Amino acid sequence: MVHQYQLNGYNIVLDTCSGSIHVVDEVAYDIIAMFPEKTADEIVAEMLEKYRNREDVTEEEIRECIADVAALRDQGKLYTPDTFSEIAGTFKQRSGDVVKALCLHVAHTCNLNCAYCFASQGRFHGERAIMSYEVGKQALDFLVEHSGARRNLEVDFFGGEPLMNFDVVKKLTAYARSIEKEKNKNFRFTLTTNGMLIDDEVIDFCNREMSNVVLSLDGRKETHDRLRVDYAGNGSYDRIVPKFRKLVAKRGDRSYYMRGTFTHANPDFTKDLFHMADLGFTELSMEPVVCAPDDPAALTPEDIEIVKEQYEILAKEMLRRQKEGHPLTFYHYMLDLTGGPCIYKRISGCGSGTEYMAVTPWGDLYPCHQFVGEEQYKLGDVWQGVTNTALREEFRKCNAYARPECADCWAKLYCSGGCAANAYHASGSIRGIYEPGCELFRKRIECAIMMKAAEAEDPELRKYAKTRPAQYLGCGAADDEDCEACGEC
Amino acid sequence: MERIKTLETRDLCESAKKGGCGECQTSCQSACKTSCGVANQACENENK
């Protein structure tokens, strides 16, 4: 399948099944569009007519370009047939019942009361609860026991607010570290936090033990404080930003993300992202709100158009900053064209319900964090394992080829069929789709690839191309300086 | 190819032969938690 688009002055051609990306001039762009349906003579005639005022577009030039297009086809870099549907389910079949990643809901409670929270203020539509060490330990044992030959195991401390159960987080981390050598496993921990309880101990712990920290910040103070408030209704921005700056300043080159949510109130979310960048943070993520369509925070069809424009603004501004030597990472624009995932990763779906599961504070297993609280999606528990095997089989069938709506979508090898939870909430089925989410996803990938095209053309951009490690451009305070005391934030 | 510049990319068809070790990061474990993107994950196959 070939997808062609024009963005920021670039003519881009994706050969989706080979993964090839071509940046072409307008003549080649037109020829590539015509090539499958027309003869060389027909293409020449149409092109000479279209470009009759262009001296450089001669019949010889056109025929040469047609030959180049044919050569790319013969090399398997254009018009590559889609032959992956037959192997789409094989990876998960071959993996059997291996589990390699858990989202541990260590606290179904929160010290903030954010109106848009998909976790319903951390309670996931249930009672407030805290995970005990015994439940968490059993979850880790379950993970190790079911991880087969996989060495890299991922555990995300999630909530609610996981730091409200920090002692258990520390104990579970210590337990995992105590068994990983004997079990030949490598635990990678992530902690997602609203920042309220960050202190020096948390900073040192996270920077020692967490492969990644996800720090919730919605951007500008007025944006952040509109929804991210405590139970007294007070905004949290002033309390958390100094803590985030201190944590990241001490983090060195270890991974982190400033992670925001945008809503109907700020579809112009790039202002919030650039605010984060201006605070000195370089690793950024900003996600559309997930909520019911009748929620006041929900994005409207008009917002979706604004958001698409915003993604273009973001890509162009990121290129401008990169050229000036200040590159940013935006989670959705990270593409590793040469070292990225193999085709099995690209077609097998996100792994929810099979290799990835969420664990509630009382030890129940769900396909992912977004299904927690949906009783019919309970898979089992950490003692008995997966008992609802029929449900697991339903999730096993989710892949890039499982949804008829994806059949003609050029982006399916970038999203692997999309988010099952979003599909369920939008369509009532995990094998449905959430079309507005798809629309935004396609736009993001187009922008990300355009940035790669720009880098390929401009050595100045390549010089500052940012993959890893993480950076903090920050306030300039020394690492051991007390950020909160300096007053610059 | 004067009019066509091809970026260096991983050949997905070729990756079907050796891929699928499963060691790479689960897509939802990094930053998003509310959408699915797989193309930004790094390959961790030591034998690719």
In a few lines, what is going on in this structure?
The complex is a heterodimer of chains A (489) and B (48). Chain A is built from 18 helices and 15 strands. Chain A has 489 residues and is α/β, with parallel strands linked by helices.
What does this protein structure show overall?
The complex is a heterodimer of chains A (489) and B (48). Chain A has 489 residues and is α/β, with parallel strands linked by helices. Chain A is built from 18 helices and 15 strands. In chain A, the strands form two sheets. In chain A, strands 4, 5, 6, 7, 8, 9, 10, 11, 12, 13, 14 and 15 form a twelve-stranded mixed sheet that branches. Chain A has a three-stranded antiparallel sheet with strand order 1-2-3, sandwiched between helices. The longest helix of chain A has 23 residues, at 301-323. Chain A is globular, with a radius of gyration of 24 Å. The termini of chain A are far apart. Chain B has 48 residues and is low in regular secondary structure. Chain B is built from one helix and one strand, in the order βα. Chain B has one helix at residues 12-18, and one strand spanning 4-7. Chain B is flat. The relative contact order of chain B is 0.25. The mean pLDDT of chain B is 86. At the A-B interface, β3, α3, α4, β6 and β7 of A face β1 and α1 of B. β3 (20-24) of chain A pairs antiparallel with β1 of chain B, so a sheet runs across the interface.
Task: Indicate the structural class of chain A.
Answer: alpha/beta
- The total count of strands of chain B amounts to 1
Rg over CA atoms of chain A: 24 Å
Main pleated-sheet profile of chain A: 12 strands, mixed
Strand content of chain A: 15-25%
Total count of helical runs of at least 4 residues of chain B: 1
Characterize the main sheet of chain B. none
> Which class do the helix and strand fractions of chain B yield?
little secondary structure
The overall pLDDT average of chain B reads: 86
Beta-strand proportion of chain B:
5-15%
Low-confidence segments of chain A: none
**Largest interface, counted with CB-CB under 8 A?**
A-B, 90 and 43 residues
